[in-house]
Write a structure and sequence with these properties.
GO terms for molecular function: 2 iron, 2 sulfur cluster binding; metal ion binding; NADH dehydrogenase (ubiquinone) activity; oxidoreductase activity. It is built from 9 helices and 5 strands; from the N terminus they run ααααααβααβββαβ. The protein is of the alpha/beta class and 243 residues long.
């Protein structure tokens, strides 16, 4: 059965490139180009609530190492800025931490968690790394793209509700195939359950995260086969003097 699955997966690879994400030139990844919607003249600053959060984060570090807060502060800025990290967000974080802006740019362009272009209301990340690929992630990615109006990975739907990208391992291999929508994992996907999740988000709802197959977390779908007895307590099997 495993050999058959691998054969099917390999045939699916032959039908498409190793990556279906849109090709991007290196300067698009690492070099900022001013645009009407992303340039330093556009003001940005933390809301009162987020400034309080930022100060709490910075307080976790010694004063001489406050720049260590750059990643959580960029994340906070991205969340306030509708899911993407503009040049104004980077400059604001640099000023708040007393860092050269270039150091912040280096962080924001290195980690793919920081979106440097606007995204839709719902950010869909489909994992296509080997475990998910062997479990049918090609079909899941194709289903997502076709169900959202025949868009391609890296694109946003015309109504601005969804952006879809293809990503590497998200650490949920035992529940493959899976996708991340905003901050939540949706696992054990089929084409049908994928459409159901997307339809719920399209209607402004939030479906229950986790396995969509009905099983609990990563448990065997047929039920527990190990660790079925009551765990023994501390010292239960020690000699009397140590109990």
């Amino acid at each position: 059965m495993l050999a058959l699955r691998r054969s099917i997966a390999l045939r699916s690879i032959a039908r498409r490139g190793l990556s279906s994400s849109s090709v991007k030139r290196s300067d698009a990844l690492f070099v900022h180009r001013d645009t009407k919607y992303n340039n330093p003249s556009i003001p940005f600053e933390f809301s009162k609530e987020n400034l309080t959060k930022a100060e709490e984060i910075i307080a976790h570090y010694p004063p001489q190492y406050r720049k260590a807060a750059v990643i959580p502060l960029l994340d906070l800025g991205q969340r306030q800025n509708k899911g993407w990290t503009s040049i104004s967000v980077m400059n604001y974080v640099a000023k708040l931490l007393g860092m050269p802006p270039m150091r912040v740019y280096e962080v924001a362009t290195f980690y793919t968690m920081f979106n440097r272009e606007p995204i839709g209301d719902n950010f869909v990340q489909v994992c296509t790394t080997t475990p998910c690929m062997l479990r049918g992630s090609t079909e899941i990615l194709d289903t997502v793209c076709s169900h959202l109006g025949d868009i391609k990975p890296g694109e946003t739907t015309k109504d601005g509700k969804f952006t879809v990208i293809e990503v590497e391992c998200q650490g949920a291999c035992s529940n493959a195939p899976m996708m991340v929508v905003n901050d939540d994992f949706y696992e054990d996907l089929t084409a049908a359950s994928t459409k159901k999740v997307l339809d719920a988000f399209a209607q402004g709802q939030k479906p229950k995260p986790g396995p969509q197959s009905g099983r609990h977390t990563s448990e065997n779908s047929a039920g527990l086969t190990a660790l079925t007895s009551k765990p023994y307590g501390p010292g239960e099997f020690c000699t009397p003097e140590f109990q």
